[in-house]
Amino acid sequence: MAVTLEARLAEAVRIAEEAGRMIVKAREEQCFDQRLKEGIELVTDVDVAVDTFISQQLDKHFPGELQLSEELSPEQGLGTKAPLWVVDPIDGTVNFAQGLRHVAVSIAWLEEGVGKVGVVHAPFLDETFTAFKGGGAFCNGQPIKPSSATELPATLVGTGFPYDRAARKALMPRLETILTHCQDIRRNGAAALDICDIACGRLDAYVETVSPWDFAAGWVIAREAGATVGRLVEVPEGVSIDLYPKELLITAPGVFQSMKSLLLDAI
Ligand code: IPD
Ligand code: CA
Ligand code: CA
User: Fold this and answer.
1) For residue 40, what pLDDT is reported?
2) How far apart are CA 58 and CA 73, in angstroms?
């Protein structure tokens, strides 16, 4: 018998919360090594251990289903139509290593390239955002919705910056236009949580280029909450719109068009 989306979500939440306990314990014990991937991107032993735990749990409960995950299988399944789990074991690794609280476990499930289940669990904030397709979006079991912002001067914008410092210069015109026209900027260091903050109305707009595992679950949650999910660029032919991670723009519905025009004018 086919597994329902509710059952998939329940299992993903259980796994994410268990992973969250591993993350909290590792910070309490401060017993992890860290290094730089490709010389620029921080990764700790805990990222790898949590990814391994999640992968083993998914294998056990959903045998044979593909997994795309940041630390174990980052190239896996990108173009697939087959059922696919997309995992970021620790979103906000720099925050985790620095003792900051914006840290999340992010797990999404896609079928036919469509995001159908998403969980983003923030173990230091005691928040779990959840959604499945057609079922609405929730934080700790309570329904959530985006803000009612309609004007740019009242739009609080979340974003992030690439680890590669050389790639940051190109974003300066964008920052200038946001700081000139919008309320302000937040850089909280965990894309999955930034997107959930759009879903529940704490932020009004989010723009960033990330990787599939950073946004896949948050995207399902934001869409189910009623936020507008889109991009500043077209998605290439044959690529899933729920996995293509470039130039994401996710906003409260009342500011999507004005944010898009503002940001396109600044490129
Ligand atoms: C990062 C965070 C950050 C975003 C980066 C991501 P990581 O994920 O989501 O907010 O700006 O682009 O790579 O490396 O902590 O999993
Ligand atoms: Ca991430
Ligand atoms: Ca990560």
Assistant:
1) 87
2) 14
